[in-house]
Amino acid sequence: MNDVLNDAITDIVSRRVKILDEVNHTFALSKEQLREYQLHKVKETLLHVYQNNEFYKGKLTESNISWNDIKALSEFSALPFTIKEEIKSQYPFGLLSASHDEIVRYGESTGTTGDPINSYYTGDDWFANNCIVATLLSNLITNQDTVAVIVPYGLALVGQDIDRALELIGAKTIAIGMLSSACPVERSIKILKDTETTTLVCSPSRALYISEEAMKLGYDLKNDFKIKKILCVGEGTSIEKAKAIKEAWGADAYPLYGMTETNTIAMSCQFGKMHIVENKLDCEIIDASTGEVLGDDVRGELVVTSFGKAMPLIRYRTGDLCTIHSQSCACGSTFRFLEHHGRITDSIVMGDRRIQLLDLEAIILSASGTKFFTLKIKGDELIVGLVLSKEECQRVERDVMERLKIEFNIISSVVPVDGEQLIHAIKNKVKPSISSILQDGEK
After folding, report:
1. Which of 82, 133, 386, 405 could be a cystine partner for 165, CB 3.0 to 4.6 Å?
2. Is the full-model pTM beyond 0.70?
3. What is the pLDDT of residues 108-152, one digit of tens each?
4. 287: helix, strand or coil
5. CA separation for the pair 280, 277 (Å, rounded)
6. Domain total for the chain?
7. Would you tell me how many other CB atoms lie within 10 Å of the CB of residue 319?
8. Are residues 362 and 240 in contact, defined by beta-carbon separation less than 8 angstroms?
C-alpha cells in the first residue's frame, strides 16, 4: 500500500472513531439534553449553509429574520420552508454545502418522470448515518441474523444504507436487490430457504407478494422458512398490513421511514414504535394548508431540518402526513416517535373530503381479510376490488361497505378482481406504492 493511501485510510479511521463516540454520546442524552443538542445543531447548520451555499444564503437573507439569535427550537419556526420544487430546481449540486472532493455518496429517487430528487453525503455524513441506523437496528438485529435486503441498490440509497449498517452489526447480509432477471422471485425464495434467512428488508407489498409466490411453489411459509422479522421500507405499513404479514409469514413487521432527500427519518424499536433519529435531524408538524406549527399528537405535514454537512435541508416540507408523539416508550429511548400516514398525494377525494389510502387500507383489509385490493372512483361511488372469489366478495361486502360508510361516509360497492394482474403490477414496481391500488381491475 502506498504511503498516500495509507495516510488517507488512517485519517478516515481516526475520524470515524470520533464520529462513533459522538453518535454514542447522543444516544445517552436525556430528553432535555437532546433538545439542547438539537438547538446547537440547528444553529450550527444555519451558519454552515449561510457560509457555504448560495441558495440558502439568499433564502436566509431574504427572510429578514435574525436566525443567528435563535435561542429555542420554537423560534426556529419563523424561518421559511424549503419545498420539493426548490430541491428539483437546484439539481444536481445547487444545494451542495461542502466541496465536491468531500462527497463520497450520491443517490437519486427512483421516480422516472420530471426532474429527479437527489442527495449526496460526505464520508463523515455517510458514516454517521450508518452508525445511527446500526445502533437503532441493533434493537432488532444481531450478528446471529441472516438478513435478505430486497430493495433497489441502484441510485436509491436505502439498500446501501441498511447494508452498511447491517455490516457494522455483524449480521450476515444477502444483497438480493430488486427482483429481476438476475435474481427472479423463484431464485430469491430458494435463497431465503437455503440460507435460513431470519429477516427480510423490503416493502410490505413485496413481502406479501413473495409469500404468495412461495405458496404457489408449494412451500409452507411458517415451517419451511426461518423468517421472523420483516423490516418494511419504501411505503407506509398500516397495522392491518402488518397483521397480514404476520399471518402469512409468522413474522413481525417493523416499519422504517425515510426519503431520498433526508435518508433515514425514523426506525422501529423492538416495541414497534418508529423513533425519529433526532440526533441527525429536527422534525416539526405543520398544518398543510396554513403552514401553522402544530403540537404533538396531531396529524399534519412533516417538516424536516437535517444536520449533514454536504446537503443539509432547512425546514423541508416533506409532503408526508405524520403524527409525532413525545410519550415515553418501553424501549427506553429519549427520541420521540411518529406515525406515518402516507404522502398527502396518496389519497382520494370523495365529495369534499380527502381520504388517505393507508386509512382506507386499514378498513378494507380488516373487513375483507384479503391481502390485496384495488380502488376505482365512479362518480360518487368508490368501487373496492378484492382479490377474492365472487362468493367470498358477497360474504364480506356488507361489512366492507358499512365500515367505509361509518368511518368516511363513503358510498361503496365491492367486486372481485384479478389477483394475478394486481400481483404482476406490484412485482414490476421499482418501489411498490400503495398508490398502485388506484387502477381498473374488475372482472
Report:
1. 133
2. yes
3. 986 644 578 999 999 999 999 999 999 999 999 999 999 999 998
4. coil
5. 6
6. 1
7. 15
8. yes
CATH of the domain at 425: 3.30.70.1770
Per the CB < 8 A criterion, the answer to whether 313 and 83 are in contact is no
Instruction: Classify residue 138: in a domain, yes or no.
Output: no
pLDDT of the residue at 353? 87
Closest CA to 136 of 19, 308, 255: 255
392 burial type by CB count under 10 A (0-12 exposed, 13-18 middle, 19+ buried): middle
| Distance in angstroms (rounded) separating the CA atoms of residues 139 and 130 | 15
Q: Phi-psi bin for 287: left (phi > 0), alpha (psi -120 to 50), beta?
A: beta
pLDDT class for 105, splitting at 50, 70, 90? very high
Tell me how far apart the alpha carbons of residues 259 and 279 are, in angstroms, rounded to a whole number. Answer: 17
Mean predicted confidence (pLDDT) in 19-36: 97
What is the mean pLDDT of the segment spanning 239-255?
96
354 is a domain residue: yes
Query: Within 10 Å of residue 298's Cβ, how many Cβ atoms?
Result: 12
**DSSP E strands, 216-290:** 229-232, 252-259, 263-268, 274-276, 281-286
Give 3-state DSSP helix, strand, coil % of the chain, rounded to 5.
40, 25, 35
Q: What is the pLDDT of residues 314-349, one digit of tens each?
A: 999 999 999 999 999 999 999 999 999 999 998 999
Q: Which among 386, 406, 405 is positioned nearest to 396, based on CA atoms? A: 386
The answer as to whether 364 is a domain residue is yes
Is the predicted pLDDT of residue 92 greater than 70, yes or no?
yes
Is 310 part of any domain? no
Angle subtended at Cα 79 by Cα 77 and Cα 84, rounded to the nearest 5 degrees: 100
**Strands annotated E in 246-351:** 252-259, 263-268, 274-276, 281-286, 293-294, 300-306, 316-325, 337-343, 347-350
Alpha-carbon distances of 331 from 259, 370, 429, 440, rounded to whole Å: 25, 32, 35, 44
Domain span at residue 414?
347-437
For the chain, what percent of residues have pLDDT higher than 70?
95
